[in-house]
Specification:
Blueprint (H helix, E strand, L loop, with lengths): L1 H22 L7 E3 L6 H8 L5 H5 L1 E3 L4 H8 L69 E7 L6 E7 L13 E9 L6 E7 L5
């Protein structure tokens, strides 16, 4: 059970790193993981391939000599005593709590999920790995196709495809790709978009 929790934690760390990679590519100089459980390097090896090579080079999992390694990269006078440096708070706190915000439980008032919650007319349950198709018959050229959706619990894949055969069932793989399928964090904030349909179709 502990190993599963460690793997889940590693996945969450990778999600944060991926966010930095996608949105702030030059804002991440180096990441040092200290006091990591023994299983973390193995978990990291399983999921590191999903990260860009440049980001992988910035991640270092340190062993028992982590304080020594930190001192090679950070001036001891800028590193809190608890991490192997010489810096303390004016009151002698080795964790420097007046200078460093260590985080903790995020207040519910900061949650954006409830603030952007949208009431939908209908909902559907889609199993993991399953596909749900919605068909819309576009009869007028240059019609605007709009969408908005939200999910619960996890991200969801979404794409727009056009049938190449009318009046018959067709697999997604056999359809014409209009908007490439991608993963969306619709469990965090509703996803919306639109596109112009230059010709009629389904």
């Amino acid at each position: 059970m502990r190993g599963i929790k460690t793997l889940i934690s590693a996945v969450r760390v990778m999600q944060v790193l991926t966010m930095f990679e996608e949105n702030y590519p030059e804002g991440l100089k180096q990441v040092f993981l200290i006091k990591a459980p023994v299983i973390l390097p193995m978990a990291y090896n399983l999921i590191k391939h999903f990260l860009h090579e440049e980001t992988r080079r910035k991640i270092v999992i340190l062993g028992s000599n982590w304080q020594e390694v930190l001192r090679k990269h950070i001036d001891p006078e800028q590193l809190p005593v608890v991490y192997g440096g010489t810096l303390t708070d004016p009151d002698g706190d080795p964790r420097c709590r007046t200078m460093i915000k260590y985080g903790g439980v995020v207040p519910r008032s900061y949650y954006v999920r409830d603030a952007v919650k949208v009431q939908y007319d209908s909902s559907v349950t889609i199993g993991r790995g399953a596909v749900f198709l919605l068909e819309y018959d576009i009869t007028t050229p240059n019609s605007l196709l709009r969408w908005q959706f939200a999910s619960e619990g996890s991200d969801v894949g979404f794409g727009v495809y056009r049938k190449t055969k009318h009046g018959s069932k067709q697999k997604v793989a056999d359809m014409l790709q209009v908007l490439p399928s991608d993963r969306y964090n619709a469990h965090l904030v509703p996803e919306e978009g639109c596109l112009t349909c230059p010709e009629p179709g389904v």
